[in-house]
Structure formats: structure tokens, C-alpha cells
Write a structure and sequence with these properties.
The complex is a heterodimer of chains A (331) and B (255). Chain A has 331 residues and is an alpha/beta fold. Chain A folds into two domains: 214 residues, 3-Layer(aba) Sandwich (Rossmann fold); 75 residues, Alpha-Beta Plaits, CATH 3.30.70. Chain A contains twelve helices and 14 strands. Chain A is elongated. Chain B has 255 residues and is mainly α. Chain B has one domain. In chain B, α2 packs parallel to α6. Chain B starts with a helix and ends with a helix. The chains are: A alpha/beta (331), B mainly alpha (255). At the A-B interface, α2 and α3 of A face α1, α5 and α11 of B.
Chain lengths: 331, 255
């Protein structure tokens, strides 16, 4: 449905987007993830035909956005970062105007306006001026505007920015319900949002695509070394050293655990309470049995042993940070 | 075409939804009324004098009064137009609604024409109100209507030039005040450019006179529709809209 091929965008001497390529299939929700200034908005603006790319091409719903802008725009709904509302129009007047310039036939216009207002739950503010609407309603009117001509492709730039938690959940549900009929690209810098809403994720950093995959695969694939969380009750013993001696273990570090307020910041090597460690091992070796055996044969108590799944957040930091990834993931 | 109408409607609506339109139309009518009164009084005095010297038939309302009135109206327009055009593009850029227009299936030309026609609509409303004063003349005297129509056509064309220039300047900046001031300065320059013609050589004089926007209005004020001036105004309008199109397009490339 959307095909982006080697898009590059220069602003003067600054390169905002550098050789970005990806595809979005029909009915899919694609998350566009990246820190602020990564080039998300620029890429979306190129997709919507707001600005041309310096190099490369983008095809939306079968039409090149540069050579056939009108055809492509007719099939694209776009919600910019700030909803493009006219303060002196009521929500209904506004949607009616948008329907007009989005080539909705006059006979269907009223009905389309009613449909999208119901869908985005803004019918109760239909006759209020856009300048008087709260942030949540503005965002929804913006979304209604993007939906008005029933486009094949929806491009949403940070659709949940500035909403309260309840509105965020509602907006996500709405977006999910739109998938299938519409192909959706949404950008965000909120990680759980991507995991919850999107089927596929494009992570972009400094204008370059650093990863494209499903959220699950990303967390699994980029995990690299397997990490285990282990908590032992070993009074008066250097448990860390013992664990590090197990074959296949590459690294042992003391893990965060609930401490008494004002307690020592660093974990003492010997203590009376239970100790927690994060144990990393070589990817293909399952060290759980050996770890358990070491603990048990020494007469210590094994309180907890579980794999640590890397969150999308860790993945994100790992792929967008150029320092040693292991350190960054922990930052 | 449907898009042009849609955008023009939206522009007109936004003028009339805010106090701007009412203030502009109101003050324009007020100023026009002041000039109307002054010229009418002068005209009455003059015809009384003519009467005393015998033969009162020689005074012509159109020549003595309406011509001067139209010429002064052109000056008021100079002050009012920047207020109409300064927000057209600047405001859309500042509030981000330009993103809606530029990502909708409409061409740049349709947007520009829509905005131009919208502004022209407000201007036409201003002129329509002044026609009430003219009705008074018809009530108490018997002026010729054809020269008056010519005068209005001239005002409309000259206003169109101001509007297309203002639209272009507004498309250059996000800041309404900057747009308004630059527009005013440009109009003023186009108005007084022929003042320098007195002191310049023959070629430069013709050129400066030709460029002056108000110079071309004199014939209209006298009641003459000369194609020479119509062509000048229409090409001026087209040039202004062309510059706007180029400015919008270049903005798109620069990002």
C-alpha cells in the first residue's frame, strides 16, 4: 500500500532523512519510532505530499506522491503533529470544509461528516468553535478530518501526544479499529504505544532506518545475550564470584532490588540479606541448571531465577545509541 | 473550480467570523462618507457660485465631484488592503493549517485563487456599502451612472492588484505584522513612484508613470474604461498571483 524507496531529504546542508526505505502492506499498522528530531515528521510530510523528497520516491496507494500528487492525496488522510484546525469554525463547519476540499461528493458530505463525528466521538462538540475545544477534542477533530474522505492510507503524526491516559487508550482503540479498512502509519516516541498498537515497527534514528520488524521479533532478536535474573540467600559468601565461575556465564552484575531508603547505593559484596544478580550468558547455552546447582550445593537459598525479557525500551535505546549497547540498555 | 469556491467561501467566512470584516467595512464606509460630504459641500458651493454668475447648467456632478471622490477612495484602499491580506497565508503557516491545505487533493493554484477571490469578496462588500452614498446622489441630483460604474470597475481592478501583491507578501512570512507592514510599504511605493517622474528623463518618466498603480486609475475615475489600463491591472494581478505560486512552491522545496 505504501512503498518508500531510498528517500533522502536535505534541508540546506542538514540531512533530515537519509536513504529511508520501507513497505507497508494493506491493512497494516506501522509504527514509526524514533527520538525527537529523528526524521519521523519529515518522512511523513514526504509521504503526504506536503514536501518533496530530495532523492528517492514514495508510492502511496499505487500513485507516486511526486508525479501524481492529487491522486495520492485523494487516498491519504493526514493528521499533523498539531491538528490543523481553523479556530473560527465550529467542528461541523470545519469538517464540512475539509470534506469539500478532499473531494467528498456534495451529496454524501453531510452523511460522511456525521459518520466520522460519531466514530471519533465528537458529536457533542459539533457546534463548538475549534478554538474553544480541549486538547483531547482538538486531537479527535484532527483525526476526524483525516478520516473524512475514507482514505486508504492514514498517516498520523504522534496521534496521542498531549492526551490524558484515558484519551490515549481510547485513541489507541480507535486506531486499532481502523486498521484493516485503512493502512496506517503512526509515529510516536512512546514505546509501549508501539508494542500495543502496531504490527510492525520502523525504528529511525538520525534520519536512518535502524530496524524494521514486529515488536516481538525486535525484542527477541535484539536481545543478543540471554539475561537471567537470580536472587540468592547466601549469608556471608561471595555469591557473585561463584555464579561468574559457572561455565557459559559471560557477565554477572548486581541487579537493582528494593532497598531501604537511604541505604547504601552499591551492593556490598558480602551481606546478610538476599542478593540479586543479573547473569548474562552466551546466547546458545542454557546456564539455568548449572546456576541452580551451584547455589544449592553450597547450601544457599535459591529465591528466584527467571529470564529477563528485554523491553522494547531497551531495544530502542540499544539501536539508537551509538555507545556500547550493553551499557546503554541499562542506562 | 469547486475547490476554488470552497476555499474562497472559507476565507470569506473567516473574515466575517472575526471582527476584522466588520471593522474594515465600517471604517471604510465612514471614511468614504467623510470624503463624500467634503466633496458634496465643495460641489454645492461651486454650483451656487456658478449660479450667481448666471447659467447654472454648466456644472457636472460626475466631473466636479465623483472623480475626486474616487481618487481619494483609492488612497483609503491603500491603507485598508494590507489588513485584509496580511493574514491570508501568514496565519495558515503560523497555525499549521497550511499542512491541511497542502496535503489535500487541491492544486496550489486553486488555493491561491480561492484566497484571492475570498479577499476580493470582502473588498467587493466594502465597495457595495459605498454605493449607498451614490444612491443619495441619484435621489437628489441626476448624475450619469455609466462613469460611476467605470469608477467602480477601476476600484475593483486596482484593489485586485493590491490584493494579489498582499497575498504574495503574506506567503513569504509567518508573521502577520511583518506581512502587513511590508505590504503597506510596497503599496505606498507603487503609489508614489510617479512623483519621481517629474525630475527624470523622458524614458524613465514614461516607465515610472506606467508602473504607478494610481496613475492608471485616473481614467477610471473620470469614467473612462480604457483597455490599456484594464490590461495593466489584469497583468499586474496575474503577476502577483504568479509570484505567490512561486513562493508557495519554493517554500515546499525548502521545507
Amino acid at each position: 500500500m505504501i512503498e518508500v524507496q531510498h528517500i533522502t531529504k536535505h534541508y540546506g546542508r542538514v540531512t533530515a532523512v537519509d536513504d529511508v526505505s520501507f513497505r507497508v502492506e494493506r491493512g497494516e499498522i506501522l509504527g514509526f519510532l524514533g527520538p525527537n528530531g529523528a526524521g519521523k515528521t519529515t518522512t511523513m510530510r514526504i509521504l503526504t505530499g506536503y514536501m518533496p523528497a530530495s532523492e528517492g520516491r514514495a508510492v502511496v496507494a499505487g500513485y507516486d506522491v511526486f508525479t501524481h500528487p492529487i491522486e495520492a492525496k485523494r487516498r491519504t488522510g493526514y493528521l499533523p503533529e498539531t491538528p490543523p484546525l481553523y479556530p473560527d469554525m465550529t467542528a461541523r463547519e470545519y469538517l464540512d470544509f475539509v470534506a469539500k476540499i478532499k473531494a467528498v461528493p456534495a451529496s454524501e458530505r453531510k452523511q460522511r461528516v456525521d459518520t466520522v463525528m460519531e466514530r471519533t466521538r465528537i458529536a457533542d462538540v459539533a457546534n463548538r468553535h475549534c478554538s474553544k475545544l480541549s486538547k483531547g477534542y482538538r486531537q479527535r477533530v484532527g483525526l476526524a478530518q483525516a478520516l473524512i474522505h475514507n482514505p486508504d492510507v492514514l498517516i498520523l503524526d504522534e496521534p496521542t501526544a498531549g492526551l490524558d491516559p484515558k484519551q490515549i487508550i481510547e485513541t489507541r482503540d480507535l486506531i486499532r479499529s481502523l486498521a484493516g479498512d485503512h493502512t496506517i502509519v503512526l509515529s510516536t516516541h512512546i514505546l509501549p504505544e508501539v508494542a500495543q498498537t502496531c504490527q510492525r515497527v520502523v525504528i529511525i534514528n538520525k534520519g536512518r532506518v535502524v530496524a524494521v520488524d514486529t515488536p516481538d521479533n525486535l525484542t527477541a532478536r535484539l536481545k543478543g545475550a540471554a539475561t537471567l535474573y537470580i536472587q540468592v540467600d547466601a549469608p556471608g559468601a561471595d555469591a557473585g564470584a561463584a555464579l561468574a565461575a559457572v561455565r557459559g556465564v559471560t557477565r554477572v552484575s548486581s541487579a537493582d532490588q528494593p532497598r531501604t531508603p537511604g541505604g547504601p547505593d552499591a551492593m556490598p559484596p558480602v551481606s546478610s540479606g538476599p542478593l540479586a544478580f543479573e547473569v548474562e550468558s552466551e546466547p546458545d547455552v542454557d546456564v539455568r541448571r548449572d546456576l541452580a546447582r551451584v547455589v544449592v550445593t553450597r547450601g544457599w537459598g535459591l529465591l528466584e531465577l527467571r529470564p529477563v525479557r528485554m523491553s522494547l525500551e531497551d531495544v530502542f535505546l540499544q539501536v539508537t545509541t551509538e555507545e556500547v549497547p550493553e551499557e546503554a540498555a541499562r542506562a | 473550480m469547486r475547490n476554488v469556491v470552497g476555499i474562497a467561501e472559507k476565507e470569506l467566512r473567516s473574515y466575517f467570523a472575526s471582527p476584522i470584516a466588520y471593522i474594515i467595512v465600517g471604517f471604510f464606509a465612514l471614511l468614504f462618507g467623510v470624503f463624500f460630504y467634503v466633496y458634496l459641500m465643495a460641489f454645492v458651493r461651486q454650483s451656487e457660485q456658478m449660479m450667481q454668475f448666471g447659467g447654472g447648467g454648466g456644472v457636472n456632478v460626475n466631473q466636479m465631484m465623483i472623480r475626486g471622490l474616487f481618487q481619494n477612495t483609492a488612497v483609503i484602499i491603500l491603507f485598508v488592503m494590507p489588513i485584509i491580506t496580511m493574514r491570508t497565508y501568514s496565519e495558515e503557516k503560523r497555525s499549521g493549517t497550511i499542512e491541511l491545505l497542502l496535503t489535500s487533493p487541491v492544486t496550489d493554484l486553486e488555493i491561491i485563487l480561492g484566497k484571492f477571490i475570498g479577499a476580493l469578496g470582502l473588498y467587493a462588500a466594502m465597495l457595495a456599502v459605498t454605493m449607498l452614498y451614490m444612491l443619495v446622489l441619484f435621489k437628489v441630483g441626476n448624475p450619469e451612472w455609466r462613469p460611476i460604474i467605470a469608477g467602480y470597475v477601476g476600484l475593483l481592478l486596482m484593489g485586485g492588484c493590491f490584493l494579489s501583491t498582499g497575498l504574495f507578501i503574506s506567503s513569504l512570512t509567518k508573521n502577520q505584522i511583518v506581512a502587513g507592514f511590508l505590504t503597506f510599504a510596497t503599496f505606498l511605493l507603487l503609489w508614489i513612484i510617479n512623483w519621481f517622474s517629474e525630475s527624470s528623463g523622458p524614458t524613465a518618466r514614461d516607465l515610472l508613470n506606467y508602473l504607478s498603480i494610481t496613475e492608471h486609475f485616473d481614467d477610471f475615475a473620470r469614467g473612462i474604461i480604457d483597455t490599456k489600463h484594464v490590461v495593466y491591472y489584469l497583468s499586474f494581478i496575474t503577476f502577483g498571483l504568479f509570484l505567490t505560486a512561486k513562493s508557495v512552491d519554493s517554500e515546499r522545496w525548502r521545507g
